[in-house]
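Morning, I've got a small favour to ask if you have a moment. Here's the protein in full, and shout if anything looks odd to you:
***
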Amino acid sequence: MFETRQIHPTLAREVVGLSLWQTLDDATVAELRDLYAQYGVLVFRRQALSEAEFAAFCTLFGPLERTVRSDWASPTTPEVTVLSNLKDGLGRPIGGLGDGELQWHSDQSYMMKPATGAALYALELPAAGGETFWVDLRAAYAKMPRQLRTQIAGKRAIFDYAKRLAGYGRESDRQISDEARRLTPAVTHALIRAHPETGLGSLYLDSTTTIGIDSMDTTSGLALLDEVYASATRDEFIYAHQWQVGDLVLWDNGFTMHRRTPFDPGARRLMKRMTMNLDRYRHVMPDGRLSQSEVGMPI
């Protein structure tokens, strides 16, 4: 048995009383899947997991995905992405994303078919900084001014990984393989998606990859996106997470964005991330097209 605690009015729940290294019974797994689909962010504290146990838990929510950043993959479990500012004995980064600030984004938004499930597990943390914030894009859409909702209805934003790469602080993070570049052409996604179970709309956004709106001139498209981001990232829609060692946070990129605050480069931060393909009948599922498609997808 476990309990849950509300930590945000619409978005996040803390799950209390589970040891995720243990085998969970079918009823518990079913309840966790329901909570995940409903809230989008689940927090589990005081966990102690090997990479194999971390992977086994995440598999309960969908097939694991190996991301295009194979240079950030764990050497023992390639589905695990290492996010850290630490370096090995030869001075090489052991993972990605360093110590800088990360702006509002959704993982894999630059892919044709993003794997929207994600989990992040904290192993080492700085004394200050490195907090993560999630924003509920369902609530943001529900409270968006009517005129702005009308302006973006049926429109598709252009998402380009090259923009995110250019924004990374470390040179090693900005470099990707030719194969990764081949797999990440600019794509479009509908700005509004409908939930497959409830039919309610939510936004699909990523400030680190959006470069315009399909079928609009660049200046007008970026101006409209600026309005959308300003409306969507109001404090009332945001859950702020203060990390503790042993935290595991599970989230749904289909209707959230997240960002990270910077931290002292001399401090140590070691996180491990997993990416999952979620059930399209229970979760919002972006469906990309090449950016030259110029085809809208209204809900």
